[in-house]
Amino acid sequence: MSKTSKPKEQLNNSNYEIDTLPAVQLLEQTGYNIRFKSADGLTAIYISDKK
Predict the structure, then answer these.
(1) Which residue, among 21, 28, 23, has the nearest Cα to 46 in the 3D structure?
(2) Cα gap 43→10, rounded to integer Å
(3) What's the rounded Cα separation, in Å, for the pair 17 and 15?
(4) Which residue among 8, 10, 32, 37 has the highest number of C-beta atoms inside a 10 angstrom radius?
């Protein structure tokens, strides 16, 4: 997400601010539940199948 906001007239679809995620390691994978965690421990990603 952007830390600053601009009026819609100043937005350009081809110029985005890019924030990258740190490298993550797979912690657990059971069926559709997948858990990742970054090496520094500050970022966790959980993926699950919800119907």
Answers:
(1) 28
(2) 32
(3) 7
(4) 37
Q: Quickly tell me which residue has 């007239």 as its tokens.
A: 9
pTM over 0.70: no
How does pLDDT run along the chain (51 residues), one tens digit per residue? 556 777 777 766 666 666 777 789 999 999 889 999 998 888 899 999 876
CA-based nearest residue to 43, from 28, 24, 29: 24
Torsion angles phi and psi, residue 8, rounded to 5? -60, -25
Per-residue model confidence (pLDDT) at position 46: 92
22, two tokens: 């740190």
User: Tokens 């858990």 — which residue?
Assistant: 35
Q: Which two tokens stand for residue 8?
A: 């819609």
